[in-house]
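Supplementary Note 3. Input sequence used for the single-chain structure prediction.
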Amino acid sequence: MVDLSQINKNQKALITHIHAQHILKKRLLSLGLSIGKEVEVVETSLQKNTIKIALGFSSVALRFDEAKLIEVEVA
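The predicted structure, written as discrete structure tokens, is reproduced below.
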């Protein structure tokens, strides 16, 4: 299993599963992160505590612990 926090900069991946609790899962879905969506890692912070991803025409910043809950398949 590969999670979103393990993806390199400028690499694309397909979301296959979200392992978050109900409240966080609902928030991620409202941001457009759902199973079957393609995401691309734009950048990570120097301290490796946040990750910025591109999702279609928008971008989303996630904490690394949140990104670890999103299972992906590298494209």
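The chain has one domain: 2-74. Residues 22-30 form the longest helix (9 residues).
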